[in-house]
Specification:
With about 200 residues, the protein is of the alpha/beta class. The protein contains 6 helices and 13 strands. The protein has a 6-stranded mixed beta sheet, with helices on one face.
Length: about 200
């Protein structure tokens, strides 16, 4: 399965058109967006419409620049846009789990409750892609100069427990395009440029 993933375009038309060009040239099976499609929800509907004509699913989580409920309602207008927040989406033989919003907290109690409710189904899945806006604690993706690690411990615990094949995050612009392998999980902040990933 061929995946194109990107994040944090913040309504920048230049970045969006570059992403669309990449999607059209690479023709992935699915597109996964890791939050902050807008700049504080400006032109949110038109930004989503830009991706509504894609022939493949466009999975999106809210970032800290989108209200989760507002984004959820807008996504309902477009057939190929899949809203994912504390929920899961099955695509072929892959389960995609998303948790958006925030970006600044060290724990996510709402996500912890969600993952606990569906723990058995997660354990049955052989292939999981985990998508969050906040980075994962204690990795290259959440480390800032002087400050140190600022990521989310709830998401790290999920990765340790369920071993997703791919874990995608965004939010920290300083760490765009950084990736790290943790056991069997590829963790990546694809940034607005994005990255093509292959999942067998």
């Amino acid at each position: 399965m061929k995946i194109y993933t990107f994040c944090d375009v913040h309504g920048d038309n230049r970045l969006i058109h570059r992403a669309l060009k990449k999607i059209n040239s690479e023709n992935p099976d699915i597109v996964i967006f890791g939050g902050d499609i807008s700049e504080f929800e400006q032109n949110l509907s038109s930004l989503l419409k830009t991706f509504s004509s894609l022939p493949m699913p466009f999975v999106i989580i809210p970032g800290n620049h989108e209200d989760p409920e507002e984004l959820k309602e807008m996504c309902k207008k477009f057939k190929n846009i899949i809203y994912l927040h504390n929920s899961a989406y099955k695509f072929r033989d892959v389960l995609i789990i998303g948790s958006g919003g925030g970006g600044f907290s060290s724990k996510d109690s709402v996500f912890e409750k969600y993952s606990k409710r569906f723990e058995k189904s997660f354990e049955r899945e052989r292939k999981i892609i985990f998508v969050t806006h906040a980075p994962f604690y204690g990795t290259k993706l959440d480390k800032l100069p002087i400050i140190g690690h600022v990521g989310n411990k709830s998401y790290r615990e999920f990765i340790i427990k369920f071993k997703p094949k791919i874990a995608i995050c965004g939010h920290l612009h300083e760490n765009f395009e950084i990736s790290e392998k943790f056991k069997d999980t590829l963790m990546i902040n694809p940034g607005p440029v994005g990255r093509i990933l292959e999942l067998e």
